[in-house]
Structures are given as C-alpha cells and as structure tokens.
Design goal:
The strands form three sheets. A five-stranded antiparallel β-sheet has the order 3-11-6-7-8. The relative contact order is 0.16. The protein is an alpha+beta fold and about 425 residues long. Helix 1 (about 1-35) runs antiparallel to helix 8, helix 2 (about 50-100) runs antiparallel to helix 3 (about 110-130) and helix 3 (about 110-130) runs antiparallel to helix 6 (about 300-315). The longest helix is centred in the last third of the chain and has 58 residues, at about 320-375. Strand 7 (about 235-245) and strand 8 (about 250-260) form a beta hairpin. The chain has a domain at about 185-300. The chain has helices spanning about 1-35, 50-100, 110-130, 175-180, 215, 300-315, 320-375, 380-405, 410-415; strands spanning about 145-150, 155-160, 190-195, 205, 210, 220-230, 235-245, 250-260, 270-275, 275-285, 295-300.
Length: about 425
C-alpha cells in the first residue's frame, strides 16, 4: 500500500516539474523576445491598453509627417513667390530710373521713343515674372484661384482676388496677385491725370493726392478750364473751371469753381470736395489756357500705368506732355512699389510662420515618440535583470526535473 502511495506522489511531482519547466521556458522565451525586439509590448495581446496608446501615437506621428511634407511644398512655393515679388520690385525700380531719365528737360521725340522702347522691354520681362508658376505648374500670384496666366492680354487680373488662409499646420501656397499689382480706388486712391491741351497751352498737373477715399468710391472727375485771368499788378493767376463728377453708377454732377489767386511760378491748387470733406488735391502747372481739360480716373493697376506711360512717351510732342507722362508714371510706380512691398512682406511673414509650424510639429513629434516609448518600449536594465532571473529559474527547474526523473519505480527497485 505504501508503495502505491509513493508511486502516485512521484507521478504528481513529475507532472508538476513538467508544468513548471514549461512555464519557465515560456517565460524565458517571452523575455528573450522582448530583449531582442526592445519592446515590452510585442503583440496587442501582451497589453491591449498600452498597444492602443502606442498605435495612437504612431498614427499621429504619421499624420505629422504628412502635414510636414505638405508644408514643405507650400514653403517652397511661398519662397518662390517671395522671390518673384522681389524680382518684380527690382524690375519696377529699373523702369522708374528710366522714367526719371526720360523726364529730364530738352528731350526730343526720338529720345523719348528710345526710353519707351527700353521700358517696353522691361515691361515684357515684368509680365513674365508676374506670371511665374511653381513646380506643380500653379501660378505663384494666383490668389484664391486664377487662370494659368493671371496677368495676360490687357493685364487685368484673371482670377478671384483674395489671400488664402493658413492654419496651425499649413500656410497658403500662393499670394494675392491682385493685391500686389492692381489698385483699388478706396484702398489705394491712385488716380491717373490726363491733360488735353488747347492751342498754346503748356499745362501739366501734379500727381493727385486723395483723402476720405470711401466718399469718392471710385468716382471719375473732369476739369474744364473756362477762363484764365492774370492780375496785371502781381502776375497772380486765377482759373475759372467746371468740375464734372461721374459716379460708378453713371450719375453725373457738375459745378463751376474759381481757384485762389496763385503767384507766378507756383502750381495752381485745385481741391475737390465732397460736402465739407476734401477728397482730392492736385496742382496745375505751366501756362493754362481756355479749353484745357484735365481728366482724373482711377488707375486700374501698376501694369496698366506702365503701358500708359510707354504710350504717353511715344506720343508726347513737347516737354510739357512728356513731363505730364513722367510725373504721373512716377507717382503710380511709387504706389505700385508700395503694394509690392506690402505683399512681399506678407509672403515673408508666411515663411516665418512655416518655420514656427515646423518647430511646433517637431516638438509635438518628440512628445508623441515619448508617449509611444512609454507605452511599448522595454526598460533594458529591468529586462536584462528579469531575463537573468528567469534563466536562473529555468536552470533550477531543469535540475529539479532531473531529480524527479531519478525517483521512478525502476530506480527504486534497482536501488
């Protein structure tokens, strides 16, 4: 009976040693797999919560990489747009220098034609510059959407004006070409003054200065000189004129005014009022005569002003006409340069914003990598210690199993 109980106990010890040996071997294999992979969570079944956290962090990191690739494309396009605006500024400055040279006194018709030809060449280069495209074939100055050539034909902006917005992870891929090269009557108040001379006139006008532009709202004006009076005592000049205003809706208003007496050599000041508010001021220079006419219309844009200046130089028959063309062109070029500088500055700020976004994304990526690492990576020091402890336990289990094997009935009978 005692031998029967001994055999049952030996079988239980044998089964227990086998189970313990298998468990320790499985634990050792798992720890070895963790060490070789460097991860605490190799499969989702190891720790479902940690696996979900790690997967969420990896998904967000991939999204950051995608956003950064898109941002780099936008940054490259904006850098090209900023460079394009810089080239346009340089081109306008060169044209301005030529226009200043064309305005010197004593120029002949041939001289003015020569300057006009040089300006035409620069103007053609300018058109190529403002129609540049990015590496994807999209216009750099396309605003909210435009034709492949935003400035073609009459050089009106062929597109939807406006600046695309930016977000916390992206910037606009183009700039507003309309804001850079087109004039707005209320925003800019750039007016073109064209003088129609009567026989014997040397009249020219100074550039128009505008005020309270919202009151004008893009209206056009025409000044017709009715009479010119020169005071024989002091030589001062007084001009009677009719001022006709044409609103955008076609409404026409006319009134008669008289200028203040102006000493010889000074420009006759002309002020245009809307009620009690002054909206425009300019001066009449030279020798005005009856039936002279000055037409003031809102200038559409910089390129139209350049075209008008080229045509004006070609058609100017005397210094007075040439001076009028040059004076107006310089004023419009200065206004155009101001618009280009403003939009170029905005493009530069977008590039700075792209740098800040990249910095924020890099910081966010580091945080997400830390979250992923905490969720699934293995503490190598702890992992090695656990592996060594498991290895020692496995060796002990093997030795215990060997001892159990010696307790079989045959060994007992033989002993």
């Amino acid at each position: 009976m005692s031998s029967s109980f001994f055999r049952v106990s030996t079988a239980n010890m044998y089964d227990g040693a086998i189970r313990n040996l298998g468990a320790r071997q499985s634990q050792l294999v798992g720890l070895q797999e963790n060490l070789s992979s460097g991860k605490r969570v190799v499969r989702a079944s190891d720790d479902p919560v940690a696996a979900a956290q790690a997967e969420r962090a990896l998904t967000r990191m991939e999204r950051i990489k995608t956003e950064q690739r898109q941002l780099e494309s936008q940054r490259n396009a904006m850098a090209l747009a900023e460079s394009t605006l810089g080239d346009a500024v340089e081109m306008v400055q060169q044209m301005r220098e030529l226009m200043v040279a064309a305005g010197r006194g004593g120029q002949t018709s041939n001289d003015r034609n020569t300057y006009a030809t040089q300006l035409q060449s620069l103007r053609d280069q300018m058109q190529e510059i403002i129609n540049r495209k990015d590496t994807n074939g999209q216009p750099l100055l396309g605003a909210l959407g435009s034709a492949l050539q935003p400035f073609a034909g009459a050089l009106q902006f062929d597109g939807l004006p406006g600046q695309a917005g930016s977000s916390g992870t992206a910037i606009a891929g183009s700039v507003d070409g309309h804001a850079a090269l087109m004039f707005d009557p209320v925003r800019d108040g750039v007016y073109d003054a064209k003088v129609t001379h009567a026989p014997g006139s040397t009249l020219s006008s100074t550039p128009a200065q505008t005020f309270n532009r919202s009151l004008m709202d893009g209206a056009s004006y025409q000044l017709d000189i009715n009479s010119v009076t020169v005071d024989p005592t002091d030589g001062s000049t007084t001009v009677d004129y009719t001022l006709t205003k044409t609103d955008k809706d076609g409404s026409i208003f006319a009134d008669i005014f008289t200028s203040a007496p102006t000493p010889p050599g000074q420009a006759i000041a002309i002020d245009i009022m809307e009620g009690a508010d002054k909206v425009m001021s300019f001066g009449l220079k030279g020798t005005p005569v009856q039936f002279d006419q000055v037409t003031l219309t809102p200038s559409p844009g910089l390129m139209q002003s350049i075209d008008a200046a080229i045509q004006g130089l070609k058609q100017a028959g005397n210094d007075a006409s040439g001076s009028q063309v040059v004076t107006q062109a310089l004023a419009h070029m200065d206004a155009g340069l101001e618009r280009l500088f403003t939009v170029r500055g905005y493009a530069g700020e977008l590039l700075n914003r792209a740098d800040r976004i990249t910095g924020d994304q890099d910081t966010r990526a580091v945080q997400l990598e830390a979250d992923r690492s905490r969720a699934e990576d293995l503490d190598m020091v702890k992992g090695i210690s656990e592996f060594q402890n498991a290895n020692i336990g496995y060796e002990a289990a093997l030795k215990s199993y060997a001892q159990v094997q010696r307790l079989s009935l045959f060994n007992y009978i033989n002993g």
